[in-house]
Inverse folding.
């Protein structure tokens, strides 16, 4: 499972807020909702968040093994 708790820590340490992500950087509110609920995001969105927050991908998301992961 990919989860986004690192994003929330990174956001808190930055000068950005969910408001500025939505209104200044044009990140949709549905993306914010996906981050809140650990729903899948595409890599373009993750790239945009890394650029905006000037951070590495590990500061946005992390992988946690889960029994509900899809089998290979």
């Amino acid at each position: 499972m990919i989860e986004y708790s690192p994003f929330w820590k990174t956001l808190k340490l930055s000068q950005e807020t969910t408001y500025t992500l939505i209104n200044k950087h044009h990140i949709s509110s549905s993306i914010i909702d996906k981050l809140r609920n650990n729903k899948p995001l595409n890599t373009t969105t993750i790239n945009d968040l890394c650029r905006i927050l000037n951070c590495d991908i590990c500061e946005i998301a992390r992988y946690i093994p889960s029994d509900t992961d899809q089998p290979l």
